[in-house]
Design a protein that fits this description.
single chain, globular, 6-stranded parallel sheet, 21% strand, 9-stranded mixed sheet, 415 residues
């Protein structure tokens, strides 16, 4: 059921212990006037965070947008009623204008984060910054320094920290529920078609043009492991490879484009199957996925119609990271492309008095060694009505935390 709900994002006997109510709300008083924001980069993530303004208009309002792609910019203008005077094709034009909002939502491409984040921080905007913060250590430090100097809040979208199930896991570990934590095994199953779309055909396929796949896809998983551990990491080793998506794996009869390929019908990675027949990520390929002619043209001529074994990609499709932490603790993380589940993390925590397993977005299984019993802990989920359901509903809880931080002028809400 979880994966079915997740797929919709890409197209338009044990006892039970409740940890929170089943569905969350904005359970704090609305401000006299909503928090205002400018969206800098109106792609998928920018639109997702802006959805909060449509669902909770007394709390949040989008008042400006900077986006070079006309369709995305116009869509944001129409949805949020943005005035022409606050509609920009470049972030530099928006940053040249006087401060017009409380928050700047920076959702440009990964490698482009530092410049706008620093510029808007200097203007006095609080910063909501999509992960990864930057693709270099120097970029991260420059952003942090700019926010500190300006006295503004910086919220990096490591959204997994805001998921109630992950916060509950942190509470259980901190309270000693399973004794001393010894080891964490954590996996991100990227999803076979998701990886093909984003990291073989898409924007994150080449390290030189973006960053390496572990940074782009799983930096918040690495962050989670360190956060859960709560002690310093002493050493890291890692290995990975581009195992599948290169020319030497290409089937003998395969063409360079799926629309011309004689074996397309037998290929799980077929662009025709993924974008046309299933509709997954079609809105990332063309402005209006209902325009079948435009989609056919895009697949026949554009990057998303290429054979996955005949692209210019170079990022790894599987990687393992081993961590040695203080207090003789260890962890292992696996990122792998070849999965049916799509980004639905699987985690097991091994302690001296028990273990925790989390293979579900709202449930934790606790096994206690002394009693030799298992308990299922049910955690909070976002409202049924919200469109901010990405990352197991963590997108909703991130925006809730940001609004609380700004409204109450209290950065402690930012994890």
């Amino acid at each position: 059921a979880d994966n079915s709900r997740r797929l919709r994002l890409f197209t338009a006997g044990p006892s039970t212990q409740p940890c929170l109510s089943k569905h969350a709300t904005m359970d704090f008083e609305a401000p006299d006037s909503p928090v205002t924001a400018i969206v800098v980069g109106a792609g998928n993530r920018g639109r997702t965070y802006a959805t909060c303004a449509l669902e909770y208009p007394t709390y949040f309002k989008i008042v400006a947008v900077a986006e070079p792609v006309e369709f995305r910019r116009c869509t944001m203008v129409t949805r949020h009623g943005i005035d022409d005077s606050r509609t920009y094709t470049t972030w530099t034009d928006a940053a040249a204008a006087p401060k017009m909002a409380d928050v700047a939502i920076i959702t440009t491409q990964d490698q482009d984060h530092p410049a706008p984040a620093i510029a808007f921080a200097k203007l006095g905007y609080h910063i909501l910054l999509e992960k990864p913060m930057a693709v270099t250590k120097e970029g991260c430090q420059a952003i942090a320094d700019a926010c500190d100097a300006a006295g503004v809040m910086l919220c990096v979208c490591h959204v997994l920290r805001y998921a109630p199930v992950n916060r509950r896991l942190k509470q259980l570990l901190t309270s000693g529920t399973i004794g001393r934590l010894v080891n964490i095994q954590h996996t991100e199953p990227v999803g076979y078609f998701h990886f093909a779309h984003s990291f073989v055909r898409g924007n994150w396929r080449k390290e030189a043009d973006s960053t390496f796949s572990l940074m782009a896809k799983s930096c918040h998983d690495i962050d989670l492991i360190r956060w859960w551990m709560g002690v310093s990491c002493e050493s890291v080793t890692s290995t990975g490879s581009l195992s599948e998506f290169h020319s030497s794996r290409k089937p003998a009869k395969a063409a360079s484009r799926c629309t011309e390929c004689p074996v397309e019908a037998d290929c799980a990675y077929s662009a025709v199957r993924i974008y046309q027949k299933k509709g997954w990520f079609a809105s990332h390929v063309v402005n209006d996925p209902r325009d079948t002619a435009a989609l056919e043209t895009a697949l026949a001529t554009g990057p998303y119609g290429r054979c996955v074994w005949d692209c210019d990609n170079d990022v790894v499709d599987n990687q393992v990271v081993q961590f040695q932490f203080a207090d003789q603790r260890t962890a292992s993380f696996t990122m792998v492309a070849f999965t049916d589940k799509v980004c639905q993390r699987e985690t097991t925590f091994y302690g001296t008095k028990g273990q925790l397993r989390c293979y579900h977005e709202s449930q934790i299984e606790h096994f206690d060694f002394l009693s030799h019993t298992s308990t299922t802990i049910q955690c909070e989920m976002p409202p049924d009505s919200t469109g901010m359901v990405g990352h197991g509903g963590a997108d909703f809880f991130l925006m809730k935390a940001l609004l609380q931080a700004v409204i109450k002028n209290d950065p402690s809400y930012i994890q």
